[in-house]
């Protein structure tokens, strides 16, 4: 019988191998890279000079952010040789490698829904932000259209009926997920959101939809759809506009911007 330690090591090895495959696939998908570039532009649009900021990214294993912002400090729970830091983000308040009140921004893209305790992480992360510093996170948005996609065509778990804002079962950083978790915190459960109000100015929270089907029609990380780049970029502009005008109908992602008190 395999020990719990052996099982955990095997899961981490599988997650590390999957991350490397996904990173290579993303880099080879030019339309998907364009989608991410536009996402990052949108995430940092309120900053005059993002290249001058002190930015920590959580969950950098697959992320291409440092291709567009080389000043970002990359990190992940998986031990990958191209990262600046390897640590469990739930322990960020104990991380000596980053001084307290030293960061302008902590950013995450499709990471919160993989965390065991996203609210505990966010409250702990506040200690590393300067007063007025930002957490910028992008996560799945549940519209009429995207709910069907996430529930029936996507491989990650969707549970809209959870009693607490946590993952019950954790099997590894990639295998564990509830993609509805951030949506519930920021759109559905005000009582959960209020748990962040001591460390963040929840009253000034910015939440905006980002894109409808433009991520999916790239093929995502798992496959590549051969759409010419020029055509895709035109489609993306229309798709983004639709997600902003009709979010409840077709938006698939949202970006939240929180300010540390």
Name given to the CATH homologous superfamily: Vaccinia Virus protein VP39
The CATH class turns out to be: Alpha Beta
Taken together, the total number of domains comes to: 1
Note the main sheet.
Answer: 5 strands, mixed
Q: Outline, from the CA principal axes?
A: globular
Q: Uncertain regions: pLDDT < 50 for 5+ in a row?
A: none
Would you tell me which CATH topology applies?
Rossmann fold
Structural class: alpha/beta
CATH architecture: 3-Layer(aba) Sandwich
Number of strands: 7
What average pLDDT do the residues reach? Answer: 94
Beta-strand residue fraction? 5-15%
Helix content: 25-40%
Radius of gyration from the alpha-carbon trace, in angstroms = 18 Å
Total helices: the number is 9
Order of helices and strands: HHEHEEEHEHHHEHHE
Fold and architecture overview:
The chain has 261 residues and is of the alpha/beta class. The protein has a single domain, classed as Rossmann fold. Helix content is 36%, strand content 15%. The protein is built from nine helices and seven strands. It has helices spanning 4-28, 30-43, 65-68, 118-125, 144-152, 181-188, 190-193, 229-245, 247-250; strands spanning 55-58, 75-76, 85-86, 103-109, 129-140, 206-209, 253-259. The strands form two sheets. Strands 1-4-5-7-6 form a five-stranded mixed β-sheet. A two-stranded parallel ribbon has the order 2-3. Strand 4, helix 4 (118-125) and strand 5 form a beta-alpha-beta unit. The longest helix is centred in the first third of the chain and has 25 residues, at 4-28. It is globular and about 45 Å long. The mean pLDDT is 94.
């Amino acid at each position: 019988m395999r020990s719990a330690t052996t099982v955990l090591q095997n899961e981490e090895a599988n997650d590390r191998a999957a991350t490397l495959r996904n990173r290579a696939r993303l880099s080879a998908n030019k339309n998907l890279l364009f989608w991410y570039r536009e996402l990052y532009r949108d995430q940092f649009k309120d900053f005059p000079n993002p290249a001058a900021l002190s930015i920590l990214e959580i969950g950098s294993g697959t992320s291409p952010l440092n291709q567009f912002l080389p000043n970002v400090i990359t990190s992940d729970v998986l031990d990958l040789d191209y990262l600046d830091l390897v640590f469990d983000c739930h322990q960020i308040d104990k991380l000596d490698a980053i001084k307290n009140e030293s960061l302008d921004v902590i950013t995450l893209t499709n990471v919160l829904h993989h965390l065991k305790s996203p609210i505990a992480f966010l409250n702990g992360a506040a200690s590393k932000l300067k007063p007025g510093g930002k957490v910028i996170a992008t996560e799945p948005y549940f519209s009429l259209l995207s709910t069907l996609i996430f529930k029936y065509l996507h491989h990650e778990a969707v549970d809209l009926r959870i009693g607490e804002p946590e993952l019950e079962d954790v099997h590894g950083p990639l295998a564990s997920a509830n993609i509805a978790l951030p949506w519930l915190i920021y759109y559905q459960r005000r009582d959960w959101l209020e748990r962040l109000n001591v460390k963040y100015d929840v009253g000034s929270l910015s939440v905006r939809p980002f894109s409808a089907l433009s991520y999916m029609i790239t093929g995502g990380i798992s496959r590549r759809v051969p759409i010419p780049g020029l055509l895709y970029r035109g489609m993306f502009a229309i798709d983004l506009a639709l997600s902003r005008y009709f979010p409840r109908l077709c938006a698939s992602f949202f970006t939240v911007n929180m300010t540390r008190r």
